[in-house]
Input
Amino acid sequence: MKVVPSRSNEWVRSVTPPKPASAIIEIDRVSQVFQTSARKHHLALSEISLTIEEGAFVSILGPSGCGKSTLLYIVGGFVSPTSGAARIKGQAITRPGPDRGPVFQEFALFPWKTVLGNVMYGPLQQGVRASEADAQSRALIEMVGLKGYENFYPKELSGGMKQRVALARTLAYHPEVLLMDEPFGALDAHTRTRLQNDLLNIWERDRKTVLFVTHSVDEAVFLSDKVVMMSKSPGRIRQVIDIDLPRPRRRNELLLDPRYQKYVVDIERMFDESDKAGSPS
Amino acid sequence: MMSPATLTRRIAPALACVGLLMVWQVASLALKNDSFPTAIEAIRAIPDILGDKESLINILASLRRMAIGFGVAVLFSIPLGLLMGRSRAVAAFFNPLLMIIYPVPKAALMPIIMLWLGVGDVTKTLVIFLGVSLPVIYHSFEGAKAVEEKMLWSGAAMGLSPLQRLVRIVLPAALPEILTGCRTGLVLALITMITSEMIARQSGAGNILFNALDMGQYDTVFAMIIIVGAMGICLDALFDQVRARLVRWSEPQFDMPLSFS
Output
């Protein structure tokens, strides 16, 4: 059965002619200040402006502490910016919503639910009939490669399997934007590679907008259409680089591709330079 | 076939009980004190107590008060503890109050409560309620505080309201910790049940015990101690069965991740 997204603005969009690559998320001069102690403030994000186009795979790349996760949380509506605003389809983001689906490094699965229970949670919350939610969820579990594990509890799964469940759980309620917060950061290198490949395969089917936070240059270049490089203290956008590599991407071909290698080396060099030029802190 | 290790584990509790009774028997024979009957004398007095209709009614009345006090305390304490764990304002308000109440022996409040509410069931049930509440509130509070923020964010993204998140995410996530509090609460319920009947003597298991003490029937006193102890063990075992069923998902026997990425 075909899954029809029940978004109310579907109708509105069909009236206005669809523009190719229209902006879905706009981040407008967003700053975030954290109070670290009674008198000290830390400027985590400084005047960030960024536009993300519909259907794009965008990575936010930077060293730890550059505020890249905070930026993702602001888009998610989990954190309110100190100043500035983020918008989705022109609407100001004030709270979390099912149009933006997060996938966290910590998996954040519901440990009292089975794999199937976790994946069905969102659709049931959205009012999808139980039999339908069950069928859709089983299909998703199969898609992420966990067929046969429907009745396992999260505690019985390895890290990579847990992250597969988390991805399926988020895809299950059809968010328009996937917000991925270093999703493979806690996994070993082998598992990480497999999940990157599988994520790309899944993404290349329906081309959902993805905002992907990572500190791995290879990962960002391999997956993305666009890499947003950030620098830290204060968190700023250093440069935005379009990754002009053909899709579908295959790891074994890409690693040998000089264009891929050049992107990786260039980006690494830019980070090195900014480290040397940076303040002696 | 049971392996020797399993067999040892199964019979260990029985061995411990038999060992305790043997030490008791030897100690009382050695001391030859009238107020310290032997284990065998105490065990012989048990059927007399359990066979007496009056005594049974007393014991059942005790258990009923305990069940009500425990039940009401749990229903009150879990929501309060969860709210405290998720809201700094609620925690800031209730924490000082609980800090004051915590170290006060609940039985010490009995004379005052008796003045207000008499010596009947209400007073004793209230004291049991107070005894059970604090550990349950405390463990619910700690459990709710420890719930991963990202789990709540995931729920919020699915469209759960703050109240739904409290009931459908914080409550189940904190359940193992909450049930640890309930288990402590159950033992405290038994203790406060007996002490309340010691202070307000009118009926109950504690009443039988202290009446026998007044009349110098020491075998009955010790028989009651055995009965109360056995009730404690049975209640705890029963509770653990329920607990294990509710939080099967967090049990350590599941702690064997499969090797598969």
Observations:
- The first helix of chain B runs from residue 4 to 31.
